[in-house]
Specification:
The complex is a heterodimer. Chain A contains 15 helices and two strands. Chain A is mainly alpha-helical. Chain A has one domain. Chain A has a two-stranded antiparallel ribbon with strand order 1-2. Helices cover 69% and strands 0% of the residues of chain B. Chain B is built from eight helices and no strands. In chain B, helix 4 packs antiparallel against helix 7. Chain B is flat and about 70 Å long. The two termini of chain B are 21 Å apart. The chains are: A mainly alpha, B mainly alpha. Chain A binds chain B through residues 28, 32-37, 90-92, 146, 153-155, 157-159, 161-164, 167, 219-221, 323, 325, 329, 332, 366, 370-381, 383, and chain B through 8-14, 16-17, 20-21, 23-25, 27-28, 30-42, 45-46, 49, 53, 166, 170, 172. Chain A: This is Ferritin-like domain-containing protein. Chain A: InterPro entries: Ferritin-like_SF.
């Protein structure tokens, strides 16, 4: 792909023309049955991006009075973009089915990012995290089968494997071993900054989703499973959030976030097959270009610097929304036994004793991810569909 | 509106991607379950939690017997009156939701080519459900109970009905799909009214039981109506 400077030549839709009605925000959802799974992947990813856009902009506004009005104006639009995107998920998805879809997003998008990421340490972090989300998918698939009698592959549509990864019961680490080394804002490629913002936002929404729906389950093991995995997602937010350079200024973080939103919508628009939803991605790409240009103008006024200092460099190809089966299997074969000690990736035997100590207690009264998946081997049509001789 | 389910590109089945399915199944053979056991592990955990957990909540004490001993309360209100109050509360909640379900079904029928002629019938059932609701309010008040309280069984009736509510209010569902959801509601309602009458009689409240017999007859008519409307929508012969 071209550099972002090419994209910046396009001014996008001016903010005052970015309008919505309630009806269009809550319009016809995707089809759970007839749309491709990657349409749902894009919907969930972009909801995560928009939710994070709101979150980040609220934080920025707390630190600089001059930014409060423009951020409030942009947030009004982003709230409605977020609604239009999230309301595309149809109500016939049970919360557990949506959960399966969230994990598919975490696996397929993180795997795509890991292969596109030029910084070896950052790429390693994405591979490390994706093996955990891969395992969450397997445990949730067992829960879906054994609680609702449903096949997770109805959601995954054959794109994503359903086998154990790095065991969820071993994801619970001491905070010291969730922090990672950050990129250096002066040396990092633009895509490195974009990846960190993107995956942090995606994991944040996964965490928030599990925290919201976990207590709506009545099954005691499902409640415990959501508690367990939500905790790991919070660790993932810590992990991915620490990849970003804390030395970046508020304005720099804003620019990176807007660039990430442009990149993500452009990726969606490029690959979407549902024409109605493709039109939405194209419309919102133009909206984000408007936001990015506005942020660049404010950056020039306040910091008196060229936005290219932050957003310079070319971007590799768009996020590849496709099955990353071969890559994920390779990572599973080679890196399942990796653990962490502080910010370093180490063999299993060298894992931080603090993490082992933490885990010993938190796992001591039973582990939902183990309970639900005891002996679980995925079979098309659910494990009940296994024909015994 | 014609939303009859058609043949199309439903992507959910394994046969839509046989090559992917073959790879997935083979991979399960290579990386099988890493925790020993089977689904009974989940069952054991559930069993244990069922033993440990408390209940959903309580039946509110009727205002008329506040401060009385349980034995005096039973003497005044019959055998095990809290059970009857709980189940009356359940029926009341169910009928109240039923009114809303029929209102949603009427809206759907209004949007369907085949639905408009059903509207008077559905409206009649809706009004019957509302009348039943008041019958239950009267019964609860005759026991000194608060008809505005949500009893445990009333609460759970809402949980049970939430699926039917979603299907009937979803603008994407067709009339047959909504009627199918309504059938599960009416089947339950029928059995529940029968049981409630027996419960009232057994508890020494024959007056309440007899006041419900007409409602039961109407509910049986509702069930037959919904059953035949559904058969008609599905084009089942004889309808």
């Amino acid at each position: 792909m071209h550099g972002l400077s090419g994209i910046l030549d396009n001014q996008g839709t001016p903010l005052e023309k970015q309008q919505f009605t309630w009806k269009e925000m809550a319009s016809r959802p995707m089809s759970k049955l007839d749309d491709d799974a990657f349409t749902r992947v894009r919907i969930i990813l972009m909801n995560g991006v928009e939710a994070d856009a709101l979150r980040v902009k609220h934080m920025l506004a707390r630190f600089d009075k001059r930014l409060q009005l423009p951020l409030a104006q942009i947030r009004r639009v982003e709230q409605h973009q977020c609604t239009a995107v999230n309301w595309l998920l149809s109500a016939d998805h049970s919360p557990l089915e949506t959960t399966i879809a969230y994990e598919q997003v975490a696996i397929e998008v993180t795997a795509a990012v890991a292969q596109n990421e030029p910084d070896p340490y950052q790429a390693q972090t994405y591979r490390f995290g994706l093996l955990e989300d891969f395992d969450h998918l397997y445990r949730y698939a067992a829960m879906l089968d054994r609680l609702e009698g449903k096949d997770a592959n109805n959601i995954l549509q054959g794109y994503t494997d359903l086998v154990p990864g790095r065991k969820t019961s071993e994801h619970h680490r001491a905070p010291e071993s969730d922090l990672r080394e950050n990129y250096d804002k002066n040396d990092a490629d633009l895509i490195t900054k974009i990846h960190a913002a993107l995956i942090t936002g995606a994991e944040y929404q996964t965490h928030d989703y599990y925290m919201n729906i976990g207590p709506t389950f009545t099954d005691p093991v499902a409640r415990m499973l959501y508690a367990e995995i939500a905790s790991v997602e919070e660790q993932h937010v810590t992990q991915y959030g620490s990849l970003m350079d804390p030395a970046e200024s508020l304005m720099e973080k804003w620019l990176v976030h807007e660039a990430m939103e442009v990149y993500a919508y452009a990726s969606c628009a490029e690959q979407e097959e549902n024409p109605r939803i493709k039109a939405l991605w194209e419309r919102f790409l133009d909206y984000e270009l408007g936001h990015l240009n506005m942020a660049c103008d404010i950056f020039k006024q306040i910091d008196r610097r060229d936005p290219a200092e932050v957003l310079g460099g070319t971007l590799p190809s768009m996020i590849q929304f496709k099955s990353q089966r071969d890559f994920v299997r390779k990572v599973l074969a080679e890196e399942t036994d990796l653990r962490t000690s502080g910010s370093a990736y180490v063999p299993k035997e060298q894992e931080s004793p603090l993490s082992l100590e933490y885990r010993r207690h938190i796992n001591s009264e039973g582990i939902a991810s183990d309970i639900v998946s005891a002996g679980y081997d995925w079979t098309p049509g659910t494990e009940l569909n296994r024909k015994t001789p | 509106m014609n939303k009859a389910a058609k043949l199309g590109h439903n992507f959910t089945g394994a046969q839509m991607s046989p090559e992917d399915t073959r790879k997935m199944v083979e991979y399960v053979g290579e990386r099988p379950a890493d925790v020993p056991g089977d689904a009974s592990t989940l069952a054991h955990a559930r069993e244990q939690m069922n033993r440990e957990e408390g209940d959903v909540g309580s039946v509110p004490i009727p205002g008329s017997v506040k401060g009385m001993l349980k034995s005096t309360f039973d003497k005044i209100l019959g055998n095990d009156p809290e059970l009857l109050i709980d189940k009356l509360g359940e029926r009341l909640a169910f009928e109240r939701t039923g009114v809303r379900l029929y209102e949603a079904l009427i809206a759907k029928a209004g949007a369907c080519e085949t639905g408009a002629e059903l509207i008077p019938t559905l409206r009649q059932i809706r009004d019957d459900e509302e009348a039943h609701m008041f019958l239950l309010v009267d019964a609860l008040e005759s026991l000194g109970a608060d008809p505005t309280a949500q009893t445990p069984c009333a609460d759970l009736a809402g949980v049970v009905g939430s699926g039917a509510l979603k299907v009937i209010t979803d603008p994407r569902t067709n009339l047959a799909q909504a009627l199918n959801a309504m059938l599960t509601i009416e089947l339950t309602d029928n059995a529940a009214w029968e049981l409630l009458i027996k419960l009232a009689d057994d508890g020494g409240h024959a007056n309440i039981g007899s006041s419900f017999t007409h409602a039961l007859t109407e509910e049986q008519r509702h069930l037959n109506t919904i059953r035949s409307l559904l058969a008609r929508e599905l084009g089942v012969s004889g309808h």
